[in-house]
Design a protein that fits this description.
This protein is 34% helix and 20% strand. By secondary structure, it is α+β, with helices and mostly antiparallel strands. Bound molecules: flavin-adenine dinucleotide (FAD), (2R)-2-hydroxypentanedioic acid and zinc ion. One of its GO terms (cellular component) is mitochondrion.
Length: 486
């Protein structure tokens, strides 16, 4: 994408000069912590989907919170725009510059600070990779209360900045509940810290909440304190084929009732998302009889394998008997369990590798959850834009999957190339449809650059005004992540 038709560079921002580079070198004390080489800059300028690309000439990789503070203070005084970046796995173009903003990567803030084995409180630098944090916790018998397909690259700070939801929100809740404290640097260099907060603390405004989901627009998160649950000793995964959306909803209510406290994930996938995954991974369907309109992945996590197995068996037996589930597999060992999760976690790649993808990350009341995929397919068919096997059509497939247990659908329109006609067919149609059905235009990925003009579909004028007031108070020069949703 080019941005010239969407947004203009704000000329209040200063352009980078040699004197600025000299200052940053003096702060970071090592040339390796500044990236200025064109080839190396590419990774930071471009997003995971290769959809958004900026032209930053500088990446800064500080090692300490104090260095972040010195950098921001200077940028604020000089009016140099800055994009905070974590693992760069965000899906809304929020982590990349639009023009020549400086990229402030927290990747070198990568130490676990402490872990309390009694309370389960983990204190970590923001740049620790999620999977590394979870592996550290695994050794102590604990679990990071969030898991997602990008765990090998995304950061603890990045997921907090986006308020990512992921695969087990159903069980462990949102980061708004599990994050106990944060350390963040404000645009003027002030270091805010609530890292020592305990589980309960009703002493005025809960300021950390402002940063959770702020998408790098209010401050740079440098530390996270988070409450971690005990790692479940027993896990089960079942992969089920279902013939109607009506039955999917019944399986969900049944799972909540019968699996109750051991239910830890309830993931939905439509048949066409499976077909794209099959073609992408070049593997057979997990369920040999293949080709059903809907699939569900259910995970249980508990402390007693026998008890969990029995509960799951009874639940699945009942669902089969009632004709809700047509076929299914239950992982028999750790490898099969991992394979079923890998299949599910490959969906974002499977929809993105055809040339491009339009992603819509939506919250909807469950009764309307899948209707959006049907309405989108109908619209693209009416316009003659879609065909799985005809390479002359721009759209490969419009598929739906997501965290049904949280009412979160991922509508993915896989395209052979980014195409204005397809974009016009999709937007604002999708956003209008969501608003009409009382949904949210972003359940978990945020607004970033992609949805900057659409916030009004999910927030009222008063809410938008309050958001702008907070932004203007803490970042009056608007140096942090400009051109994005605020
Ligand atoms: P980045 O992509 O680098 O940044 C994301 C945003 O946060 C940007 O606006 C950036 O400016 C800001 N930011 C990053 N770090 C900081 C910081 N330290 N301080 C201030 N601002 C910061 N999301 C879900 O919610 N659920 C999923 O299940 C899920 N699965 C995914 C699967 C795949 C394969 C991929 C590629 C992405 C997935 N995502 C999912 C998207 C999700 O937003 C990111 O993976 C994650 O939240 C971003 O973390 P990150 O460290 O890569 O942040
Ligand atoms: C997931 O649930 C992620 O896998 C990505 O949130 C969703 O690809 C998407 O649209
Ligand atoms: Zn998701």
């Amino acid at each position: 994408e080019t941005y010239s038709d969407k947004v203009k560079r704000d000329e209040r921002f200063k352009k980078l000069e040699d004197s600025d580079l000299k200052f940053f070198e003096s702060v970071l004390k090592d040339k390796n912590y500044l990236i200025t080489n064109e080839d190396d800059l590419d990774f930071f300028n471009e997003d995971w989907m290769r959809k958004y690309k900026g032209q930053s000439k500088l990446v800064l990789k500080p090692k300490t919170t104090e260095q972040v503070s010195e950098i921001l203070k200077y940028c604020n005084e000089k009016k140099l725009a800055v994009v905070p970046q974590g693992g760069n796995t965000g899906l809304v173009g929020g982590s990349n510059p639009i023009f020549d903003e400086i990229i402030l990567s927290v990747a070198n803030l990568n130490k676990i600070r402490s872990f309390d084995e009694v309370s389960g409180i983990l204190k970590s630098d923001a740049g620790v990779i999620l999977e590394n944090a979870d592996n550290f916790l695994a050794e102590k018998g604990y679990l990071f209360p969030l898991d997602l397909g990008a765990k090998g690259s995304c950061h603890v700070g990045g997921v907090v900045a986006t308020n990512a939801g992921g695969l087990r929100l159903l069980r462990y809740g949102s980061l708004h509940g599990t994050v106990l404290g944060l350390e963040a640097v404000l645009p003027d260099g002030t270091i805010y810290s609530s890292m020592d907060s305990l589980r309960k603390d009703n002493t005025g405004y809960d300021l950390k909440q402002l940063f959770i989901g702020s998408e790098g627009t209010l401050g740079v998160i440098t530390g996270v304190s988070i409450l971690c649950p005990a790692r479940p000793a027993a896990s089960n995964v079942a992969f089920l084929a279902v013939s109607s959306y009506e039955a999917v909803q019944k399986v969900f209510t049944g799972a909540r009732r019968e699996l109750s406290e051991i239910l830890s994930a309830f993931e939905f996938m439509d048949g066409t998302s499976q077909e794209l995954t099959r073609r992408y991974l070049k593997l057979d369907y997990p369920i040999e009889s293949g080709d059903y309109p809907y699939y569900i992945l259910i995970e249980t996590s508990g402390s007693n394998k026998e008890h969990d197995d029995e509960k799951l068996e009874t639940f699945l037996g009942n669902a089969m008997e009632e004709g809700l589930v047509d076929d299914g597999v239950v992982a028999q060992d750790e490898t099969q369990l991992r394979n079923l999760w890998n299949w599910r976690e490959s969906l974002p790649e499977a929809t993105a590798h055809w040339g491009g993808v339009y992603k819509y990350d939506v919250s909807l009341p469950l009764k309307d959850y899948y209707k959006l995929v049907e309405a989108t397919n109908q619209r693209l068919s009416e316009r003659g834009l879609i065909d799985l096997d005809d390479d002359s059509k721009p759209v490969v497939e419009a598929v739906g999957y997501g965290h049904l247990g949280d009412g979160n659908l991922h509508l993915n329109v896989a395209v052979r190339e980014y195409n204005k006609e397809v974009e016009k067919a999709l937007e604002p149609f999708v956003y209008e449809w969501i608003k009409e059905h009382k949904g949210s235009i972003s359940a978990e990925h945020g607004l970033g650059f992609q949805k900057k003009n659409y916030i009004g579909y999910s927030k009222s004028d008063i809410e938008i005004k309050m958001i702008k007031e907070i932004k203007n108070h803490y970042d009056p020069n608007c140096i942090l992540n400009p051109y994005k949703y605020v």
